[in-house]
Amino acid sequence: MNTCLLIPILTGLISALLGYLLGRLLGGEGNNDRVAQLEADLEACRASKSANLASSFAAGATAIAFDADAAKAIFGKKIKENDLTIVEGIGPKIQELFHNHGVHTWRELSQCSQEKCQSVLDSGGERYKIHKPGTWPEQARLAYEGQWQKLWDWQEELDGGV
Questions:
Q1: 51-95 pLDDT, tens per residue?
Q2: Domain that holds residue 122
Q3: Which of 30, 62, 94 finishes a domain?
Q4: Which of 162, 138, 6 is CA-nearest to residue 89?
Q5: pTM, to two decimals
């Protein structure tokens, strides 16, 4: 046999053997345990999510479907779901303040007290002191419930949310 062929064959066999041994040593059985643990964690998370969803429905917490066409028919423009700027007195900067305080939806805003709304405004500094959030939670409730005509009529009477 030619020695020119023998050297690459031996090198290949030694490399294969070393690769196999290193794979067994470094990644063998320990990874199987890790995968099994991750799969168990995933299953527990799914079970918890299902239980939370079931309990929220059992408690009567049903979501109200957003009807963009009905909102557009009343406001004359496209309304994005949970856009807090639909509330009279809330602009993009105030919406950003609410988002920074964990209030992202009309429903969440509707559940805020006037004091919570004021503390969100206060966190923005002096420039937000002029805003009066007294009607914001109720306006957000009307938006969440899809009572667009009632919200529109009320906002026609309001001046900056007051």
A1: 665 555 555 555 788 999 999 999 999 999 999 999 999 999 999
A2: 68-157
A3: 62
A4: 162
A5: 0.60
